[in-house]
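Predicting holo structure, glyoxylic acid bound.
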Amino acid sequence: MSNPSIDAARLLGRIGMLGAIGRDAEGRLVRLAASDAEKLGRDQFVSWLEDAGLEVAVDRIGNVFGIWKPEGAGDTQPLMLGSHIDTVINAGIYDGCYGVLSGLEVIETLKGDGFAPSRPMVVAAFTNEEGVRYAPDMLGSLVYAGGLDVDAALAIVGTDGTVLGDELRRIGYAGPHEPGFMRPHAYLELHIEQGPVLEREGIPVGAVQNLQGISWQKVTIEGDANHAGTTPISMRRDAGYAAARVIAFLRERAKVSNTPTVATVGCIGFEPNAINVIPSRATFTVDLRDPDDDRLKEEEAALTAFLEKIGAEEQVDVSVERLARFAPVTFDHRIVELVEKAARDRGLVCKRMTSGAGHDAQMLARIAPAAMIFVPSVGGISHAPKEYTADEDLVAGANILLDVVRQLATKDS
Ligand code: GLV
Ligand code: MN
Ligand code: MN
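Done. Tokens:
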């Protein structure tokens, strides 16, 4: 069997082209799920799927699929590749898009090479992976895997007050298929690492064997608005100060814990948000992550206890809304081994690793054997415009995806 390689120029060209779509007036990449900007990205992706001769299907939650069903592949469960093309605010161009476009690239390469797969192949772009506009994150793949009812998901109200279902209809991506309509034989996702490990160790490929648990909560603290100049400190019910204490607590606790736990407060808002008024309300998000579910539960319990303490000490009312809770995931060891072997066969060093970021693969792992491949992120930077992976690493990762797909789509695998 010849060992083809992907078309590097085609893949890199598409990554650049998709990265140019959805720029705001300041040139920032902001392609939030189901927005006008994301519609343009989706349209471009669909036109590439059509150019490649793939059947395009969209499900009710807006997940987009390009399906290759060659003669002889039968109606068996497909091999699915994918990721997402929605972005965070002021994003880089690789997160998610690299995996989707590499999936397409691999299928196109195999198709052009006359490869006869033993099963259909699908490339998927899942809706709202980032969770910036609608919570929870990985929403499209979660619904696809049966973890959230589709009608409940379509009714979710976004940070901008929009309803996901209305927005999908408005941009023309509320498809007819029931989520989960193709149950994958296996799922593979290629992604930039988004962390510093591979670059620091000079290793070009990561075989991702597990993914840490994620807990998202929204905390609201209610105090009293009052005059900043006249209200003695001892008489304040200062929601802003109480929020600051929670933020400091999370950071200090993670710093001294000697565990991989990470804690982030990424959004905060004060009301009335005026320079000379004590905040009556503070609303902020808490993102807690740990590869061990018991430890993650301990961190959640510690936060709950601290919020009670703050409520009493600062005389404020505290309420918590859960936005997302995903247990850690272990990927399929057989596919992880195939990734290691493919790297070895191409003369590349490969390291087993844990994903710190959330990915659609963690949802697909509920319904199919799944695994991921990582390539290095320069400086470990992601979710920021400086996100960068060298072309050589992007191409190497896509070739490993190609080799693993060939293995999984050959008879008896
Ligand atoms: C998704 O990008 C996440 O890990 O937050
Ligand atoms: Mn991603
Ligand atoms: Mn991301």
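The first helix runs from residue 8 to 19.
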